[in-house]
Amino acid sequence: MTTPPPRRPDPKPTQRVVVTSPRTRAPRARRPYSGTREINEQSELGAVYMRTLIRAQRRLGLSVCLVATGALALLPLLFAIEPELGKFRILGLGLPWFLLCVATCPMLLLAGWFYVRQAERSEREFAELVERP
Amino acid sequence: MTSGYAIVAVVVVALGTILVGTYGLRVSRTTSDFYVASRTVSPWWNASAIGGEYLSAASFVGIAGLIFAYGPDMLWFPVGYTAGYLVLLTMVAAPLRRSGAYTLPDFAEARFRSRGVRVVASILALAIGWLYLLPQLEGAGLTLNTVTGAPDWVGALIVTMVVTANVMSGGMRSITFVQAFQYWLKLTAITVPIVFLIVAWQVHGSESLTKPEYPVFRQDTEVTFQRLTTIHADAFISITGTGEIDGARVENTVVVLPEGYHRIGQGSEFTFPKDAPVPHLSTMEHNTDEMWSLPMSSGQEFPVYGAYSLIIATFLGTMGLPHVIVRFYTNPNGTAARRTTLIVLGLLSVFYLMPPMYGALGRLYTPELLMTGQTDAVVLVLPTRMIEGVGGQLLGALVAGGAFAAFLSTSSGLVVSLAGVLSQDVLRLGGVRGFRISTVLAGLVPLAMTFISTGMPVADMVGLAFAVAASSLCPLLMLGIWSSRITKAGAIAGMLAGGVPALTAGLVTMFTDTGDAWYEILLSRPAAWTVPLGFSVMYVVSLLTPRHLPSGVQRTMVKLHAPENLGLDGSGSSSSADERS
Asked: What is the CATH number of domain B4-204+292-550+559-566?
């Protein structure tokens, strides 16, 4: 850590960052064992990194997808077993109308939003993992 | 309901589409512009464009028509069309973009490094695209027929011409603008009228939509029968007009129809009296409004099987539609592809709130469509029926314009993607010229098909295209992206095992009359058996042929799943080359 000369105190903190971090990309690329390089050279370790990412994403995708669509897919069965449910009314709408027209959209959006957030997070974590020297 | 305003609206939409397209022509110069808009489209533009492209004739007129006729079982269409995007988002959006594929065949080749897989995927993409274009053209014919009385083929011809000319001149770049513009146009065209219609319904005393009575004519109603129709009258009813009843010619006189079945000839025009119960189409379940509003009221055999088959087809079919996939290539990266899809999910949810309301109001105000079987026209007829005078005509014009926008935009998207497949895989003609020749071919085939199909509801036809996509290209995408064990042989076998039966079933229901044979539902809703077939054949054959594993599958997996900004491509160097060859 270098400190600025005492005679010229600089109010901007950004200057310290410039001094302490590498100025070019060249030194980073030369680091021998970064995860990026492991993957690009298809080493065993690289394959493990990739498998972990793919598994995490697959598990996330499948579970969000199955929970949301599975909940929807229960409805026809429910209405077939218990037709009386169709006469139940919510907000002046018959239950099937309420569930399929009104309730599904926010549910799907919420599921989608959750998925995007989690997927981006796991990609960030993956990036941190493989870019670590 | 012939209205000058509606004709003006249709003309304005057609001209507007051409104008926006011409604007695109000035900016699109290179081949890359033509195919993928040079990949400079932001998520909001892209999502609007996907929405504009996706909301087809089936969404705009078809869903309301089916709900109007068959009740809440049909709500699975809008729910499935929306939920399909959730499946697409969670399972394929980002990897598909990262694969760098422009069309499905491109993906097949990138993933499996095999011409064989590519050829099969191309043929299926073409089949699905044409199957999907057909109902768009039929819907256009229906719209023009409803608003102007022109014969059915006129609308189909106009849509084909506008779309082909537009795609040929501007390509994808202009199409992205056109599509984004079309989404907002369609949303306006379906939302504004329904607001007024609901107000009108309130003003009329907000009559219950679920009365325990059969629909009746609210006023003296003149009805034109477009084709030979068999109707069933529940009580005797006296009608006036000209036409053919039970084989006897009637000229402008009063006829009393006794209770029972009657055959009304093509082109007959009769006026039905106010407050008479509406006779119903012989092939349609006769329901009181109360029974209609309950689930399982469609009178279909095996309703649970039908519902699940529809759910499977729409949830999984969305990702296999050729025009949807093209849009993902115009995202800059995988993360943007996900965000785009999420926005699409929102845009679709808003739109799909509207058609069920049209369907429900139709029970009260346009019950004669239950008799003629032209249920798809309910969205178009309601505004002029419910609101008197110029206001109703203007709203009717807005709806007609929006419907026309729906046919134009979906057809444009399909023609672009089919032209891409045709020029690269079938005709093998490169460059802008090849693309233009392919465009003409992509439009002409479905136009020819409209002349031989047997007018089934447009949403049902679209459902068949979804079923084929779900049973062939969906397994290819899902298993190809998430499993590294899938082999070339497995991919081909799976696509054929799912796609061929689904396609056959679709063509049989569309072009022949299966009547009410017990297997009818297996053919008209094939997804529940063809989708598991496609998936399991693809997986099992892959396990049996491990020697046919495509070369460099690990490298492909890195490309599909690793975030782009890390410079990962599994190729040994850190330069990322994701351009198409």
From this structure: 1.20.1730.10
